[in-house]
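Changelog note: in this version the structure field was regenerated for every chain. One regenerated record is shown below for reference.
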Amino acid sequence: MIDEAGEGLGVIVVARDVTTLKQLERMKASFVNMVAHELRAPLGAMRGYLDVLLDGISDGDPERSATCLERIRARTNGLLDLVADLLTMSRLDRPKCPAPSSRWRWGSAAGGGGDVRR
């Protein structure tokens, strides 16, 4: 801060402990990795079943085709459940309403006053 004469009045230092933020970032990365794995495994299996059906490997056997389709349906339902759970978690983490901003009057401590929004 500098006064009208250009002289230094002091320094404002803001320090912030980011340990919790770093932990949250690691947790988020771990969660994203887990979700990617949970999505990749059933999608890979579904692709395999579809390849069997589309490439004619089932040799027109209706029972084998039905088995592949049932497995695809089961995997699809599992993925839909996972997505529904993720959306529920997302809604729970979202704030219900935005926090109101507050105004502070700093006065002479800030070198002349004024309203500051935080």
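Spot check on this record: Residues 37 and 65 are 27 Å apart (CA to CA). The chain has two helices and two strands.
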